[in-house]
Design brief:
- Strand 9 (93-102) and strand 10 form a beta hairpin.
- This protein is an all-beta fold.
- The protein has strands spanning 3-7, 11-12, 18-25, 34-41, 47-54, 59-61, 69-74, 79-84, 93-102, 108-113, 117-121.
- 28% of the residues are buried.
Length: 123
């Protein structure tokens, strides 16, 4: 059974960097051909895909966030991480990590989610 668990501070001050980690169990994050994503949902808004790191370490970002988003991994801990710099109150959201894969027809299939972690940006 694959499980994902987000961790990190629940409160971040404006202009600081938000850092979250996702610990994965039940599968190695280097297993072909999975992609490990970060998604967030702000109050009253739709879920937003932020970016992903692939099984081979390649990274992909949402164009609207790529200038202040970084995703990395620690294969020894089977973790991947999100850093979002220069945060504002608009970055307040529930942040999720997820396991994705590319289906044969080219669509993205989301197989597993973490439970999500609330992050509030406030002074």
């Amino acid at each position: 059974q694959v499980q994902l668990q987000e961790s990190g501070p629940g409160l971040v001050k404006p202009s600081q960097t938000l850092s979250l980690s996702c610990t994965v169990s039940g599968i190695s994050i280097t297993t072909r051909f999975y992609y490990w994503s970060w998604i967030r949902q702000a109050p009253g808004k739709d879920r937003e895909w932020m970016g992903a790191i692939a099984y081979d370490g390649s990274t992909y970002y949402s164009p609207s966030l790529e200038n202040h988003t970084s995703i990395s991994r620690d294969t020894s801990k089977n973790q991947f991480s999100l850093q979002l710099s220069s945060v504002t109150p608009d970055d307040t959201a529930v942040y999720y990590c997820a396991r994705d894969r590319l289906a044969p027809n080219g669509t993205i299939v989301r197989d597993d989610w973490g439970q999500g972690t609330q992050v509030t940006v406030s002074s």
